[in-house]
Amino acid sequence: MTTHPVSPAGPRRLLALAQLTNSVGDGAYLVTSALYFTRVVGLAPARIGLGLTLAWAVGSVAGVPLGRLADRRGPRGTAVLLALATSASVASFLVVRSFLPFLLAACLYATAQSGLAAARQSLLAGLVAETERTGTLARLQATLNAGLAVGAALGGVALHADTTGAYLTVFALDAASFLLCALLLARLPHVVPVPRPEGGRRGPTVLGDRPYVVVALLNTVLLLRMPLLSLGIPLWITQRTAAPAWLVSALFVLNTGAVMLFQVRTARSVRGLTTAVRAVRRSGAVMLAACAVFALSAVGDDARTAAAALVAGSVLLVVAEMLHSAGSWQIGFDLAPADRIGEYQGLFGTGVTIARTLGPLLLTALLVDWGSPGWLVLGALILVASYAMGPAARRGARRAAPAGPAAAATIQSPQSG
Hints:
Layout: H1 9-40, H2 45-73, H3 75-93, H4 99-127, H5 133-161, H6 164-186, E1 190-191, H7 210-222, H8 226-240, H9 247-267, H10 273-296, H11 303-334, H12 341-348, H13 350-369, H14 372-399, E2 411-412
Antiparallel strand pairs: 1-2
Helix pairs in contact: 1-5, 1-6, 2-3, 2-4, 2-12, 2-13, 3-4, 3-6, 4-12, 5-6, 5-9, 5-11, 7-13, 7-14, 8-9, 8-13, 9-11, 10-11, 10-14, 13-14
């Protein structure tokens, strides 16, 4: 997207503040939601799992049309509305006490979250120069981790109190965080929406762009690392190793802190499609090494040896995460037509949803049921996907058509929009 940012430091700062506010709420939600839905809402764990799986399936489908809406109606207004919808869905969790209302609220939450992610990417593309997007996303990722850490600490207070009032307060905080996020997004400069094609025809959708679909699918495989910290590694530590259970929390802090400190520095090496593909390929090799080290942590009965292997594996894991993040951001933007950033990012972002939905099932089967060989299979799968990303991205670059002058987004002051 060809853009001419106005006072770029201002928009970037507001984007970061919006990211920080809702990530604090999300961090508190993530650590308390399971107990909230069982103890306060009164649902069985199986029904919670079913409801959330269905909800995120709906959300993954909604990402593309909501991203297209951001392109055509304007990303700022769309992002604001979706942040408000997310706030409303979280607030509705405060009053639901049965499965069907819970399912409806969860579907609204997942749909609004998926659409908000796509609209934010379209908004960022209109506010930040093309050469600065990966660096900006790295800063936003560091901000996200900082917010999640603060939110997780607040959620920990609620878990310690273990009262209905404490859990309700956490969910009210999450709803308020998205309300504040909407207010901050509304203060951003207006990005003029992309005009419809002549004749009013919608044209082909992103699903017709086969190279980009392949890239998005490969990225989904690479994102299987996401449920490791929240599910795979905790189950592995407690069921397959002699390491103490408290190490789960320590490894989460290690990952969060490393991303906060080093994601921006890692992203500096990515300056275009070639360096992005190289970063993704390196991430696959490092991920294979991490999986091999994790597999070794189950050898023997010495707790200190197991803990050392787990820490070493976690260091490699976060290095692979930061390399993959920096490379995939660049690839996802570079291969998207300038006038359809939101729609294309809507598809690219479904990888996160799919990884979070199907990843736990795959990781449980590979790691908990199969053991150490499962780690090697996971590492090999990610390595193959990382090396396949290069040819897929190059094919996508050859097929990418530059947008005409009419498609270029321009930026006006908030008052003019």
